[in-house]
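Q: Aminotransferase class I/classII large domain-containing protein, please. Structure only.
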Amino acid sequence: MSDLQRKRRHDGNAGAPFVSALSLSNGSPELECQKLVPLPASKVHIIWSFSKDFGSSGLRLKTAIARFHQWGAPFIYPQAGPYVTVKLVKDAETLEEENEGLERLKQAGVMVSRLRGFGGWKGFSGNLNYYGWVRMTVAVLKDRLLDALNRIADIMKYEEKEGNHSVVTQDECD
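A: Structure for Aminotransferase class I/classII large domain-containing protein:
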């Protein structure tokens, strides 16, 4: 008997523990949620969001991607997870140029991880120049993300591209 089932016998309207579709019980293909006694539909509330699954915010991801579009910065649209792959050091053609750009970001207080450190990049990139590509997290407070994006724009000399007049504001991150 699960803790939830035990508790239900007392108050009938208990909160359920987090149940992931990927969680298995002791190597068994049976999902933990299949072990629970069914609840009446009126007492079941499903809350799902990108934020809860990956520790980041879908709106924060949208904010970063909107800014990359404004800058004309190439990026790889993320399928899942709290990271965006983007070429922040836009003119890097060599390791030295990439290092210089990453050092400028570091001096501005922005920490990112160079993409080459994560397996599979060369196979994925084909003939693309992979210098300057980084992995950037969006799993931070909205104010911190907006501040980091502004610092990146300043230090890397990114400007909004002609014809793209969408503006990212703090309200869009809420």
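A: Brief note, in case it's useful. Residues 10-25, 163-174 have pLDDT under 50 and may be disordered.
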